[in-house]
Amino acid sequence: MERGKMAEAESLETAAEHERILREIESTDTACIGPTLRSVYDGEEHGRFMEKLESRIRNHDREIEKMCNFHYQGFVDSVAELLKVRGEAQKLKNQVMDTNRKLQHEGKELVIAMEELKQCRLQQRNISATVDKLMLCLPVLEMYSKLRDQMKTKRHYPALKTLEHLEHTYLPQVSHYRFCKVMVDNIPKLREEIKDVSMSDLKDFLESIRKHSDRIGETAMKQAQQQRNLDNIVLQQPRIGSKRKLKKDAYTIFDAEIESTSPKSEQDSGILDVEDEEDDEEVPGAQDLVDFSPVYRCLHIYSVLGARETFENYYRKQRRKQARLVLQPPSNMHETLDGYRKYFNQIVGFFVVEDHILHTTQGLVNRAYIDELWEMALSKTIAALRTHSSYCSDPNLVLDLKNLIVLFADTLQVYGFPVNQLFDMLLEIRDQYSETLLKKWASIFRSILDSDNYSPIPVASEEMYKKVVGQFPFQDTELEKQLFPKKFPFSEFVPKVYNQIKEFIYACLKFSEDLHLSSTEVDDMIRKSTNLLLTRTLSNSLLNVIKRKNIGLTELVQIIINTTHLEKSCKYLEEFITNITNVLPETVHTTKLYGTTTFKDARHAAEEEIYTNLNQKIDQFLQLADYDWMTGDLGNKASDYLVDLIAFLRSTFAVFTHLPGKVAQTACMSACKHLATSLMQLLLEAEVRQLTLGALQQFNLDVRECEQFARSGPVPGFQEDTLQLAFIDLRQLLDLFIQWDWSTYLADYGQPNCKYLRVNPVTALTLLEKMKDTSRKNNMFAQFRKNERDKQKLIDTVAKQLRGLISSHHS
């Protein structure tokens, strides 16, 4: 029962589903019934659905058939009417075709005109569109043409600006045209071309300033010299920022050069022509000579192109290379001042350019870069100057070099570069300058001393007298009272040497100028250099003259007189230095002049040389002595050589009247002592083995001549018999032998008041031995003569006693 109900329920559901599907098929578009049919095929009631579908189709067919049967008559009527309309339509067609033919015939010209009008309107629209497009393209082409013109005229910075406008403003408006694409593709090439050309201009500029840096530096140093001269003229007037004034003047030209940093400044790179200036006397500014526009253009171009750092690195690298070339001195620089001047001009020119670049560009170079270059330049310059100045032996060249270095330092100091090391180096060169001066003055002194006649200066008139006194500080009231002609006591080398010392002081002072030294430092430098001149140069020159082999006693005497007067003049040299340095001698740490010591030493050397020279002359006369030691004849006059020697001594000591008393006395005493000693040696020399009493008598005559000379007082100032004491040894020895007073000698020997106190027993024994041998050899028959035998015994006895005295003395 339940199964039947369930089957019935399922059958109703299936029928309802089939009904729904059929309605859906009837109401749905044919293209969209696929899913509906798929649901039928997917179900299990396919057969029942087909039956249901067939039943529905039959129902529709029956309804169509009923519909057709109901409207059949109307359909027949409609077909009849349609046939009538077909005929009328054919007539209408024929009429329309006829009308069309007529219309076509009549409207053919109009169509032609309309076609022409159409073409005209089309052309007009095309022309209008073309004009509009050309109006867009013309500015592009004009800008491109302008760009090309600027490139041809080398106005690269404006060309770069034009290129920027062309690329960012004009080309985007017409970017779809092919020629614009060509332009766009060409823009990077144009940029590179501008970049390369501007770099080429920069290279030309760098090469130009490298070649002309000496001219730039020369101009800058002339400006510094003019400013320094002006400062010296208006030294008493207040100066505010005078050192910076020169630098400000140097930059005045660039007040109007702001435009030169813009693309409007298009002059060629290098050195400008300033030879046609109206005022030839005015020195142009150092920067007036240089056109810096290539640097500014290239800097702006690289900045716009975003390659400023590349440009800065390249510029600094090239300038460093140029700096090394500039700082390399020529090998022969030390030969002339022009070599140094050109070297300094190049360095100044280099740093003037760099200083201007520093102040007229922003960041192309900076202070650290400039300071680094300057430190390198300073070290290399100082090293080069030390090396090359050491080769210089001309003090004038050294002085000129010093002035050039000062100008070099002052010029660079104006531009803000520290130059203290240069002034420190000048102090080193000062020592070298002093050495070259000493060498020069050594030659001057040598020439003066060699050309001097070593005779007192004769003056025949008041004018000549004043001339000599004007050259040398000399005062002598006695000489002033004398009538003309008269003579100064000194020779010509005294005023000449004195004036040369003053010239040396002036030369030292010249070097100290502009070194920014205090008066005390200048005074100390001059005094030390003058001391070297006196103690080393002049002293050596005097000693060389004094030690010359052919120097005469007259010359030596005159040298002593001259040095005495030069010694007195030292106080005037002190005053002279004080006057030119304004430093009082009483100032603490003031160096004293050693001239007094120098001239004293020279005088003492001359005195010693006089003593030596006199002794040598005496020796030369003694070499002429020709004694016959074996003679038995008794002479009645002194030997000829000794007479000549005494005459020479008299004439010599007569010249000593102008010498200081002690010098003449010492010379006379020294000569007498040397003569006495030489005569004693002549008597006792080993070569004289035998002598006779007659020879002793002749020798005694010679000694008496010497004593007579001593008593005559050849030099005033000796006390009585003082000079004769030089011959006391000879006198007592000769008296002992001639008087044969051996008993007195032997008896009184050793007593302070004995008659023969100065006779040495050794000397007496030596001379006695010579006489004993003579007695033995010359008197063959002496043993047969009683007197001779007694004398020989006496000699033997005396000799024995003398030996006893000698042995007892030694013990």
UniProtKB/TrEMBL annotation:
The Exocyst complex subunit EXOC6/Sec15 C-terminal domain, residue ranges: 421-770
Keywords: Coiled coil, Exocytosis, Transport
Domain (Exocyst complex component EXOC6/Sec15 N-terminal) ranges: 52-221
A Pfam family it matches: Sec15_C
Record region (Disordered): 259-280
Coiled coil: 50-109
InterPro entries tied to this protein: EXOC6/Sec15 (IPR007225), EXOC6/Sec15_C (IPR046361), EXOC6/Sec15_C_dom1 (IPR042045), EXOC6_Sec15_N (IPR048359), EXOC6PINT-1/Sec15/Tip20_C_dom2 (IPR042044)
Function text: Component of the exocyst complex involved in the docking of exocytic vesicles with fusion sites on the plasma membrane.
Similarity section: Belongs to the SEC15 family.
Name recorded for this polypeptide: Exocyst complex component
Native source species: Echinops telfairi (Lesser hedgehog tenrec)
Gene that encodes the chain: EXOC6B
